[in-house]
Amino acid sequence: MEGMNPAELHRVFQMFDRNRGKKITKKELSDSLDNLGIFIPDKELSQMIEKIDVNRDGYVNIDEFDALYQTIMNEKDGEEDMKEGFNVFDQNGDGFITVEELRSILSSLGLKQGRIIEDCKRMIKKVDVDGDGMVNFKEFKHMMKGGGFAALSSS
User: Would you place residue 96 in the very low, low, confident or very high pLDDT band (cuts 50, 70, 90)?
Assistant: First the structure.
């Protein structure tokens, strides 16, 4: 399994690096995860950062972030993690990510793509294999292996 290309990695990293300080603080990580509906207790978050913080500066830089992403994507229970990720976007639990659900999540993360419904429609269209205007779990998995929604916003 290969990681994201550098441009994709940079875009995803920036979603978490809110102050553009070239490193993700514990607070930035916590706030970003909270916005996605993922609540991790402070102690666990500290342990997570400690595990991936190779240079021991207390922050997550882009290389450490890439390693974390690859670890998540390569985990045996990656299917379960992906299902959790899918469920974050599938706000009403109907098994599909709609344009509105995507817009809502991107907007809650403070991303400009979340403000423009046409951007969200384009992003969904790029992974919507069956043409129903929504993203099902199979389409979501395929997209995530290619770098996620952030990879779609470039064109």
Answer: very high
